[in-house]
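step 3/5: co-fold with zinc ion
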Amino acid sequence: MELVCPIDQRCSDQIAALLRPPSPPLVQEYFEQLISKRQCQGIKVKQNGEFGKGLFAETDFEEEKLIFKDQMLVGAQHPSNKIDCLVCSYCFKFIGSIEQQIGRRLYLKTLGMGISSHNGCESNSSDEDEDEDDHFGHNHHNSQNGASSSTIPLPTTAVESLMNGELALPYSNKFPLPSIVSCPGRCEEAFYCSKLCAEADWDLFHCLLCTGEKSESCSRKGLLKFIQHANETNDIFLLAAKAISFTILRYRKFKASHLSKQEKTASIILGTDPSLLLEAWKPISIGHKRRWWDCISLPDDIDASDEATFRGQIRELAFTSLQLLKEAIFDKECEPLFSLEIYGHIIGMFELNNLDLVVASPVEDYFLYIDDLPHPEKKEAEKITQPYLDALGEDYSICCQGTAFFPLQSCMNHSCCPNAKAFKREEDRDGQATIIALRPICKGEEVTISYIDEDLPFEERQAFLADYGFRFQLCMDGWATKGSEELIDSNWTGSKR
Ligand SMILES: [Zn+2]
Ligand SMILES: [Zn+2]
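step 4/5: write tokens
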């Protein structure tokens, strides 16, 4: 029997209002504000058709020039990657010191937590390395068998001296990192590069999702259960929880400022104000959404005749996760956010627009620097550093990896012959997306990126694009998204729906 979410029934009108695509003028206003706030004046978001958005150059860009940087709306490091890289939970910069990064990783490795086998740091495309038997996608959790086979373990004392700062590695002062700031809620799971990042994260997302003693969640025990379930099934639930927490906290802020204005006129609103909830939801409303269980692609090993069962199982999994989240952070005034319909659409938004969050590792830079030293210095340094490199093995260069939603980048259309790419330059050391021109771009031209590996065979490219909601006829070998307009209904042309 099909499970029924009571909130879906109770709040159907409000849910429909939240899921209604925002009007084109509202979308335009949102992006214009965003672009001016980010000071990336060289671009403009244009809308064609009901859902089609595209990003256009407002000025000429030379090859390899920065087009814009995009701050994520919501993002998270993959749980398995937390063993490899200690980064700020808000801006995703590496924190601590080279010694702490190496020591912590070796320490966690000796605890048997294993280093994840993924080292796709150079890739900006979406997840392609899902486990064969993992039907839910995005599952990057602890792979015990992932540790490199060719590592040489170190004595515990050598690891400890790195962790507690007794041992300074040669030349590590050339790679200074911000010192670690703890979570104000004392959870010992979130760490920051600065007080500013700690406070911003707390106010925007974390105060409801912190498992520490100062958490503002209704049940820390419930929260722990929710997190455990997400880690065991699909870490995309953690991202969805962040989106919900973000909306609740915005709603409360709007309501508080609304009330303080109302007090002056002596009228007080009681209960939920639906218009405030809509306003709080606005940044999330901009992202294109479909229900997760409707848009997730059918795994290869599942027969088409079992498709309905598969989609039903995905829906059930989301429902289980939602009930755990509800126990942890439910807010009656924001009840529609806890409907399965909204939860499914938020997860679907990440499924359709998910972009990799990648930050290069300073540990990699450090070992490359040692390797590049002139001969006598190199030999001297390697006497100390080599055992650590051997202990880390091939995975020494693992970067910070996660998933994020970038509002501007999500407006960019795909082309198999793109004129731009997501690329981190030497100075880009945090979780922002950086878009660089691949060739000269003229004012008025659409800026496109490739969502997939352009060298893949045609059928595979189409399969990947189908996941993103592209129409199949698109991107025949080398077609730019423009130019195909006469051939296909223009609403669909090269645009994400
Ligand atoms: Zn930070
Ligand atoms: Zn915390």
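step 5/5: annotate
The longest strand covers residues 400-405.
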